[in-house]
Write a structure and sequence with these properties.
By secondary structure, the chain is α+β, with helices and mostly antiparallel strands. Helix content is 29%, strand content 24%. A hairpin with a 2-residue loop joins strand 3 and strand 4.
Length: 423
Protein backbone atom coordinates (compact mmCIF):
# COMPACT_ATOMS: atom_id res chain seq x y z
CA UNK A 1 0.00 0.00 0.00
CA UNK A 2 2.87 2.38 0.69
CA UNK A 3 4.25 1.70 -2.79
CA UNK A 4 0.82 2.36 -4.34
CA UNK A 5 0.54 5.58 -2.34
CA UNK A 6 3.93 6.75 -3.66
CA UNK A 7 2.75 6.01 -7.23
CA UNK A 8 -0.36 8.08 -6.60
CA UNK A 9 1.77 10.98 -5.33
CA UNK A 10 3.90 10.75 -8.50
CA UNK A 11 0.82 10.72 -10.76
CA UNK A 12 -0.75 13.71 -9.01
CA UNK A 13 2.50 15.67 -9.28
CA UNK A 14 3.39 14.70 -12.84
CA UNK A 15 0.52 13.25 -14.90
CA UNK A 16 -2.47 15.08 -13.37
CA UNK A 17 -3.49 18.07 -15.52
CA UNK A 18 -3.50 20.45 -12.54
CA UNK A 19 -0.08 19.61 -11.13
CA UNK A 20 1.51 22.96 -12.07
CA UNK A 21 -1.40 24.99 -10.70
CA UNK A 22 -1.45 23.06 -7.44
CA UNK A 23 2.23 22.41 -6.90
CA UNK A 24 2.94 22.13 -3.18
CA UNK A 25 -0.71 21.85 -2.14
CA UNK A 26 -0.43 18.21 -1.08
CA UNK A 27 1.18 16.76 2.06
CA UNK A 28 2.44 13.25 1.20
CA UNK A 29 4.86 13.10 4.17
CA UNK A 30 1.97 13.72 6.57
CA UNK A 31 0.06 10.73 5.20
CA UNK A 32 3.09 8.44 4.93
CA UNK A 33 3.33 8.65 8.74
CA UNK A 34 -0.04 6.86 8.92
CA UNK A 35 1.53 3.72 7.43
CA UNK A 36 4.12 3.68 10.20
CA UNK A 37 1.42 3.85 12.88
CA UNK A 38 -0.97 1.33 11.30
CA UNK A 39 0.84 -1.82 10.13
CA UNK A 40 -2.49 -3.72 9.87
CA UNK A 41 -4.18 -1.18 7.59
CA UNK A 42 -7.11 -2.65 5.64
CA UNK A 43 -7.92 -1.88 2.02
CA UNK A 44 -10.83 0.29 3.16
CA UNK A 45 -8.54 2.16 5.57
CA UNK A 46 -6.12 2.77 2.70
CA UNK A 47 -8.91 3.99 0.40
CA UNK A 48 -10.00 6.52 3.02
CA UNK A 49 -6.42 7.67 3.58
CA UNK A 50 -5.85 8.26 -0.15
CA UNK A 51 -9.18 10.10 -0.46
CA UNK A 52 -8.11 12.34 2.43
CA UNK A 53 -4.77 13.02 0.70
CA UNK A 54 -6.54 13.87 -2.59
CA UNK A 55 -8.83 16.44 -0.92
CA UNK A 56 -5.91 18.87 -0.85
CA UNK A 57 -6.04 19.09 -4.66
CA UNK A 58 -9.56 20.60 -4.47
CA UNK A 59 -10.69 18.74 -7.58
CA UNK A 60 -13.96 16.80 -7.61
CA UNK A 61 -12.92 15.21 -10.92
CA UNK A 62 -10.38 12.99 -9.12
CA UNK A 63 -11.60 9.62 -7.84
CA UNK A 64 -9.98 6.77 -5.91
CA UNK A 65 -11.95 3.54 -6.11
CA UNK A 66 -11.78 0.13 -4.50
CA UNK A 67 -13.22 -2.66 -6.58
CA UNK A 68 -15.87 -4.58 -4.67
CA UNK A 69 -15.79 -8.35 -4.77
CA UNK A 70 -18.99 -10.25 -5.59
CA UNK A 71 -19.48 -10.90 -1.88
CA UNK A 72 -18.71 -7.31 -0.93
CA UNK A 73 -21.10 -5.06 -2.84
CA UNK A 74 -20.95 -1.27 -2.63
CA UNK A 75 -23.05 0.00 0.27
CA UNK A 76 -25.22 3.03 0.93
CA UNK A 77 -27.48 4.40 3.66
CA UNK A 78 -30.48 3.84 1.40
CA UNK A 79 -31.48 7.49 1.04
CA UNK A 80 -30.19 10.91 -0.06
CA UNK A 81 -30.37 14.28 1.68
CA UNK A 82 -29.93 17.92 0.74
CA UNK A 83 -29.18 20.75 3.12
CA UNK A 84 -31.54 23.70 3.47
CA UNK A 85 -30.70 26.18 6.22
CA UNK A 86 -29.95 24.11 9.37
CA UNK A 87 -31.53 20.80 8.28
CA UNK A 88 -30.78 17.87 5.99
CA UNK A 89 -33.95 17.07 4.06
CA UNK A 90 -34.59 13.56 2.73
CA UNK A 91 -34.90 13.96 -1.05
CA UNK A 92 -34.72 10.34 -2.25
CA UNK A 93 -35.41 6.98 -0.59
CA UNK A 94 -34.57 3.60 -2.10
CA UNK A 95 -33.90 1.01 0.65
CA UNK A 96 -34.28 2.64 4.09
CA UNK A 97 -37.80 2.17 5.52
CA UNK A 98 -37.30 4.37 8.61
CA UNK A 99 -37.30 7.62 6.63
CA UNK A 100 -39.74 9.25 4.24
CA UNK A 101 -39.47 12.02 1.69
CA UNK A 102 -39.52 15.45 3.29
CA UNK A 103 -38.22 14.38 6.71
CA UNK A 104 -35.52 16.64 8.14
CA UNK A 105 -32.39 15.54 10.02
CA UNK A 106 -31.48 18.05 12.73
CA UNK A 107 -28.37 16.18 13.90
CA UNK A 108 -26.07 13.24 13.11
CA UNK A 109 -24.22 11.45 15.89
CA UNK A 110 -25.28 14.14 18.36
CA UNK A 111 -23.82 17.00 16.27
CA UNK A 112 -26.07 19.70 14.81
CA UNK A 113 -25.96 20.27 11.06
CA UNK A 114 -24.09 23.63 11.39
CA UNK A 115 -21.53 21.88 13.64
CA UNK A 116 -21.10 19.13 11.06
CA UNK A 117 -20.78 21.72 8.28
CA UNK A 118 -17.81 23.20 10.14
CA UNK A 119 -16.31 19.88 11.20
CA UNK A 120 -16.34 18.41 7.68
CA UNK A 121 -15.62 21.55 5.67
CA UNK A 122 -12.77 19.84 3.75
CA UNK A 123 -15.05 17.02 2.70
CA UNK A 124 -17.99 19.24 1.74
CA UNK A 125 -15.72 21.80 0.04
CA UNK A 126 -18.52 23.97 -1.33
CA UNK A 127 -19.71 27.54 -0.87
CA UNK A 128 -23.50 27.03 -0.98
CA UNK A 129 -25.87 24.59 0.72
CA UNK A 130 -27.40 23.64 -2.65
CA UNK A 131 -24.05 22.32 -3.86
CA UNK A 132 -23.02 20.23 -0.86
CA UNK A 133 -22.80 16.43 -1.09
CA UNK A 134 -23.66 14.93 2.31
CA UNK A 135 -23.53 11.25 1.31
CA UNK A 136 -19.90 10.75 2.47
CA UNK A 137 -20.77 12.35 5.82
CA UNK A 138 -23.86 10.18 6.32
CA UNK A 139 -21.56 7.17 6.04
CA UNK A 140 -19.48 8.41 9.01
CA UNK A 141 -22.31 8.35 11.55
CA UNK A 142 -24.37 5.51 13.00
CA UNK A 143 -27.49 7.46 13.98
CA UNK A 144 -29.35 10.71 13.44
CA UNK A 145 -32.21 12.70 14.91
CA UNK A 146 -34.93 13.18 12.34
CA UNK A 147 -38.09 15.30 12.33
CA UNK A 148 -41.14 14.31 10.30
CA UNK A 149 -43.37 16.73 8.40
CA UNK A 150 -45.60 17.12 11.51
CA UNK A 151 -42.67 18.19 13.71
CA UNK A 152 -42.29 14.93 15.64
CA UNK A 153 -38.67 13.98 16.32
CA UNK A 154 -37.02 10.60 16.85
CA UNK A 155 -33.51 9.13 16.75
CA UNK A 156 -32.91 6.35 14.25
CA UNK A 157 -30.00 3.94 13.82
CA UNK A 158 -28.62 3.93 10.30
CA UNK A 159 -28.28 0.74 8.25
CA UNK A 160 -26.09 -0.24 5.32
CA UNK A 161 -27.75 -1.49 2.15
CA UNK A 162 -26.45 -2.80 -1.13
CA UNK A 163 -26.17 0.19 -3.40
CA UNK A 164 -29.02 0.25 -5.92
CA UNK A 165 -27.53 -0.23 -9.41
CA UNK A 166 -27.53 2.88 -11.59
CA UNK A 167 -29.79 2.55 -14.63
CA UNK A 168 -29.28 5.32 -17.21
CA UNK A 169 -32.29 7.05 -18.73
CA UNK A 170 -32.55 8.40 -22.26
CA UNK A 171 -36.22 9.19 -22.78
CA UNK A 172 -38.64 11.44 -24.69
CA UNK A 173 -42.06 12.04 -23.14
CA UNK A 174 -44.94 14.26 -24.17
CA UNK A 175 -46.20 16.24 -21.18
CA UNK A 176 -48.96 18.11 -23.01
CA UNK A 177 -50.06 18.81 -26.57
CA UNK A 178 -47.29 21.33 -27.15
CA UNK A 179 -44.29 20.25 -25.05
CA UNK A 180 -41.94 17.25 -24.88
CA UNK A 181 -39.35 16.59 -22.18
CA UNK A 182 -36.10 14.81 -23.00
CA UNK A 183 -34.27 13.25 -20.05
CA UNK A 184 -30.62 12.16 -20.32
CA UNK A 185 -28.93 11.01 -17.12
CA UNK A 186 -25.52 10.67 -18.77
CA UNK A 187 -23.68 11.05 -22.07
CA UNK A 188 -21.81 7.76 -21.74
CA UNK A 189 -23.67 5.81 -24.44
CA UNK A 190 -23.68 7.53 -27.84
CA UNK A 191 -25.56 4.64 -29.44
CA UNK A 192 -28.40 4.97 -26.91
CA UNK A 193 -28.79 8.70 -27.64
CA UNK A 194 -28.78 8.08 -31.41
CA UNK A 195 -31.47 5.43 -30.87
CA UNK A 196 -33.50 7.77 -28.62
CA UNK A 197 -33.55 10.44 -31.34
CA UNK A 198 -34.37 7.94 -34.11
CA UNK A 199 -37.13 6.18 -32.15
CA UNK A 200 -38.83 9.48 -31.30
CA UNK A 201 -38.15 11.41 -34.52
CA UNK A 202 -41.83 11.85 -35.44
CA UNK A 203 -42.66 13.25 -31.99
CA UNK A 204 -39.55 15.46 -31.88
CA UNK A 205 -40.14 16.83 -35.37
CA UNK A 206 -43.79 17.62 -34.66
CA UNK A 207 -43.31 19.36 -31.29
CA UNK A 208 -41.95 22.91 -31.30
CA UNK A 209 -41.40 23.37 -27.56
CA UNK A 210 -38.86 21.22 -25.75
CA UNK A 211 -37.54 20.70 -22.26
CA UNK A 212 -34.22 18.90 -21.80
CA UNK A 213 -33.68 17.61 -18.26
CA UNK A 214 -30.03 17.12 -17.29
CA UNK A 215 -30.46 17.93 -13.60
CA UNK A 216 -28.93 14.53 -12.95
CA UNK A 217 -26.27 13.81 -15.57
CA UNK A 218 -23.21 11.71 -14.85
CA UNK A 219 -21.20 12.84 -17.86
CA UNK A 220 -19.51 10.69 -20.48
CA UNK A 221 -18.35 11.97 -23.87
CA UNK A 222 -19.16 15.31 -25.49
CA UNK A 223 -19.46 13.52 -28.83
CA UNK A 224 -22.54 11.68 -27.54
CA UNK A 225 -24.86 14.68 -27.83
CA UNK A 226 -23.75 15.75 -31.32
CA UNK A 227 -26.84 14.07 -32.87
CA UNK A 228 -28.85 16.81 -31.13
CA UNK A 229 -26.89 19.73 -32.62
CA UNK A 230 -29.32 20.17 -35.51
CA UNK A 231 -32.14 20.77 -33.02
CA UNK A 232 -30.21 22.71 -30.38
CA UNK A 233 -28.55 25.34 -32.57
CA UNK A 234 -30.33 28.11 -34.52
CA UNK A 235 -30.65 28.05 -38.31
CA UNK A 236 -28.39 31.09 -38.64
CA UNK A 237 -25.64 29.25 -36.78
CA UNK A 238 -23.50 29.91 -33.73
CA UNK A 239 -19.77 30.07 -33.02
CA UNK A 240 -18.96 27.30 -30.56
CA UNK A 241 -15.27 28.07 -30.10
CA UNK A 242 -14.16 30.46 -27.38
CA UNK A 243 -11.02 32.40 -28.32
CA UNK A 244 -10.22 32.96 -24.64
CA UNK A 245 -10.33 29.27 -23.80
CA UNK A 246 -7.97 26.56 -25.02
CA UNK A 247 -7.92 22.97 -23.82
CA UNK A 248 -4.42 21.61 -23.25
CA UNK A 249 -3.73 17.90 -22.75
CA UNK A 250 -0.88 16.74 -20.51
CA UNK A 251 0.64 14.20 -22.89
CA UNK A 252 3.03 12.33 -20.62
CA UNK A 253 4.06 8.84 -21.71
CA UNK A 254 2.03 7.24 -18.94
CA UNK A 255 -1.06 9.31 -19.73
CA UNK A 256 -0.89 8.38 -23.41
CA UNK A 257 -0.55 4.69 -22.59
CA UNK A 258 -3.49 4.73 -20.16
CA UNK A 259 -5.85 6.81 -22.29
CA UNK A 260 -5.14 4.91 -25.53
CA UNK A 261 -5.90 1.63 -23.75
CA UNK A 262 -9.23 3.06 -22.54
CA UNK A 263 -10.09 4.35 -26.04
CA UNK A 264 -9.33 0.96 -27.59
CA UNK A 265 -11.62 -0.70 -25.06
CA UNK A 266 -14.35 1.90 -25.67
CA UNK A 267 -14.20 1.47 -29.45
CA UNK A 268 -15.15 -2.18 -29.09
CA UNK A 269 -18.55 -1.22 -27.70
CA UNK A 270 -19.48 1.76 -29.92
CA UNK A 271 -21.39 1.33 -33.18
CA UNK A 272 -22.28 4.94 -34.07
CA UNK A 273 -19.92 5.93 -36.88
CA UNK A 274 -19.63 9.58 -35.86
CA UNK A 275 -18.65 8.61 -32.32
CA UNK A 276 -16.08 6.11 -33.68
CA UNK A 277 -14.51 8.80 -35.87
CA UNK A 278 -14.20 11.11 -32.85
CA UNK A 279 -12.59 8.39 -30.70
CA UNK A 280 -10.13 7.46 -33.45
CA UNK A 281 -9.03 11.08 -33.93
CA UNK A 282 -8.68 11.43 -30.15
CA UNK A 283 -6.54 8.28 -30.10
CA UNK A 284 -4.34 9.58 -32.93
CA UNK A 285 -3.70 12.85 -31.11
CA UNK A 286 -2.62 11.03 -27.95
CA UNK A 287 -0.28 8.79 -29.98
CA UNK A 288 1.13 11.69 -31.98
CA UNK A 289 1.82 13.84 -28.92
CA UNK A 290 2.91 11.26 -26.35
CA UNK A 291 5.75 12.53 -24.18
CA UNK A 292 5.35 16.19 -25.23
CA UNK A 293 3.72 17.56 -22.05
CA UNK A 294 0.90 20.09 -22.41
CA UNK A 295 -0.36 20.19 -26.02
CA UNK A 296 -3.46 21.52 -27.78
CA UNK A 297 -5.03 18.74 -29.86
CA UNK A 298 -6.02 19.15 -33.51
CA UNK A 299 -9.68 18.27 -33.97
CA UNK A 300 -10.13 20.03 -37.34
CA UNK A 301 -10.82 16.69 -39.01
CA UNK A 302 -13.97 16.14 -36.96
CA UNK A 303 -14.84 19.81 -36.39
CA UNK A 304 -13.58 21.57 -39.55
CA UNK A 305 -15.65 24.64 -38.75
CA UNK A 306 -16.61 25.71 -35.24
CA UNK A 307 -19.39 27.91 -36.66
CA UNK A 308 -22.26 25.43 -36.85
CA UNK A 309 -25.78 25.90 -38.19
CA UNK A 310 -28.84 24.17 -36.79
CA UNK A 311 -32.50 24.53 -37.70
CA UNK A 312 -35.56 26.66 -36.92
CA UNK A 313 -37.22 23.68 -35.26
CA UNK A 314 -37.84 23.48 -32.36
CA UNK A 315 -38.46 27.17 -31.79
CA UNK A 316 -37.96 27.18 -28.01
CA UNK A 317 -35.97 24.89 -25.70
CA UNK A 318 -35.50 25.03 -21.94
CA UNK A 319 -32.64 23.10 -20.34
CA UNK A 320 -33.13 22.16 -16.68
CA UNK A 321 -29.92 21.99 -14.63
CA UNK A 322 -28.73 21.28 -11.10
CA UNK A 323 -25.53 20.47 -9.23
CA UNK A 324 -25.70 16.74 -10.03
CA UNK A 325 -24.96 17.56 -13.68
CA UNK A 326 -21.22 17.39 -14.34
CA UNK A 327 -18.36 16.70 -16.73
CA UNK A 328 -19.92 16.26 -20.21
CA UNK A 329 -23.10 17.53 -18.57
CA UNK A 330 -21.27 20.79 -17.82
CA UNK A 331 -20.17 20.95 -21.47
CA UNK A 332 -23.71 20.35 -22.71
CA UNK A 333 -25.15 23.17 -20.59
CA UNK A 334 -22.36 25.52 -21.63
CA UNK A 335 -23.14 24.75 -25.28
CA UNK A 336 -26.86 25.29 -24.63
CA UNK A 337 -26.23 28.80 -23.30
CA UNK A 338 -24.66 29.76 -26.65
CA UNK A 339 -27.84 29.01 -28.58
CA UNK A 340 -30.33 31.86 -28.87
CA UNK A 341 -33.29 29.48 -28.78
CA UNK A 342 -32.30 27.77 -25.53
CA UNK A 343 -32.88 29.14 -22.02
CA UNK A 344 -31.12 27.39 -19.11
CA UNK A 345 -32.99 27.37 -15.80
CA UNK A 346 -32.46 25.80 -12.38
CA UNK A 347 -29.23 25.77 -10.40
CA UNK A 348 -25.59 25.82 -11.46
CA UNK A 349 -24.03 22.57 -12.68
CA UNK A 350 -21.34 20.71 -10.75
CA UNK A 351 -18.49 22.43 -12.61
CA UNK A 352 -15.92 19.69 -13.13
CA UNK A 353 -14.33 20.68 -16.43
CA UNK A 354 -11.48 23.01 -15.46
CA UNK A 355 -9.60 19.72 -15.41
CA UNK A 356 -11.19 16.93 -17.44
CA UNK A 357 -10.70 13.95 -19.82
CA UNK A 358 -9.95 11.34 -17.20
CA UNK A 359 -7.23 8.71 -17.33
CA UNK A 360 -7.28 5.60 -15.19
CA UNK A 361 -4.49 3.80 -13.34
CA UNK A 362 -5.43 0.40 -11.91
CA UNK A 363 -3.57 -1.86 -9.50
CA UNK A 364 -3.98 -5.66 -9.19
CA UNK A 365 -5.01 -5.18 -5.55
CA UNK A 366 -8.32 -3.72 -6.77
CA UNK A 367 -7.53 -0.01 -6.46
CA UNK A 368 -8.12 2.52 -9.25
CA UNK A 369 -7.17 6.20 -9.53
CA UNK A 370 -9.07 8.30 -12.05
CA UNK A 371 -7.66 11.77 -12.72
CA UNK A 372 -7.94 14.56 -15.34
CA UNK A 373 -5.44 14.89 -18.18
CA UNK A 374 -6.71 18.15 -19.74
CA UNK A 375 -6.74 21.73 -18.49
CA UNK A 376 -8.72 24.80 -19.64
CA UNK A 377 -6.78 28.03 -20.10
CA UNK A 378 -9.73 30.05 -18.70
CA UNK A 379 -8.33 29.18 -15.27
CA UNK A 380 -5.49 31.66 -15.91
CA UNK A 381 -7.89 34.59 -16.23
CA UNK A 382 -10.02 33.72 -13.22
CA UNK A 383 -12.92 32.23 -15.20
CA UNK A 384 -12.70 28.65 -13.94
CA UNK A 385 -15.85 26.70 -13.06
CA UNK A 386 -14.62 24.86 -9.94
CA UNK A 387 -17.11 25.42 -7.05
CA UNK A 388 -19.10 27.68 -9.43
CA UNK A 389 -20.45 25.46 -12.20
CA UNK A 390 -22.19 26.65 -15.35
CA UNK A 391 -24.64 29.26 -14.09
CA UNK A 392 -28.24 29.12 -15.40
CA UNK A 393 -29.81 32.14 -17.05
CA UNK A 394 -32.82 31.87 -14.74
CA UNK A 395 -31.92 30.81 -11.21
CA UNK A 396 -34.48 28.87 -9.18
CA UNK A 397 -33.38 28.43 -5.54
CA UNK A 398 -33.79 24.92 -4.15
CA UNK A 399 -36.21 24.63 -1.22
CA UNK A 400 -37.79 21.60 0.50
CA UNK A 401 -40.91 22.29 -1.58
CA UNK A 402 -39.00 20.79 -4.54
CA UNK A 403 -39.26 17.36 -2.87
CA UNK A 404 -42.99 17.19 -3.56
CA UNK A 405 -43.52 19.72 -6.37
CA UNK A 406 -41.27 20.02 -9.44
CA UNK A 407 -40.90 23.80 -9.28
CA UNK A 408 -38.32 23.78 -12.08
CA UNK A 409 -40.66 22.04 -14.51
CA UNK A 410 -43.57 24.24 -13.47
CA UNK A 411 -41.49 27.32 -14.31
CA UNK A 412 -40.33 25.78 -17.60
CA UNK A 413 -43.92 25.09 -18.69
CA UNK A 414 -44.92 28.65 -17.78
CA UNK A 415 -42.03 30.09 -19.79
CA UNK A 416 -42.68 27.91 -22.83
CA UNK A 417 -46.40 28.67 -22.85
CA UNK A 418 -46.08 32.44 -22.38
CA UNK A 419 -42.65 32.92 -24.02
CA UNK A 420 -42.08 35.68 -21.46
CA UNK A 421 -38.51 35.53 -20.16
CA UNK A 422 -37.20 33.23 -22.90
CA UNK A 423 -34.35 34.26 -25.15
Amino acid sequence: MENIFNEIVHIMNHDYAGWKDKKGCDRPAHFIQTFKGNPSMTKQDFKELVEDYLLDFNDSHVYFLLESSTSEKAKSRGFRVRRYEDGLYVTEVDSETQVELGMRFVSLGGHTIPELREKHHRLLNENHAERENWLPILSLYEEGEVEDTKGTRKTIKFNLYDKVPYIPEYSVKKINEDIVVITMTDFADPDAIVKMVADNKVLLDSTDKWMIDVRVNNGGSDSSYQPLFEYLLPAEGVELADEDDDMLFNCTEDNATRVIADIDEGLQGVEDEQARVFLNVFRREWERNRGKGFVQFNFEEIVPDTFIKGSKHPASIIVLTDNRCGSSGDSFVELAKKSNKITVIGRATLGLNDYANLASKKWPEGFELMYPTSRLSRIDIGKGMTKVGIIPEIYIPWTPEHIFVDKDMEKAIELLETKVGLK
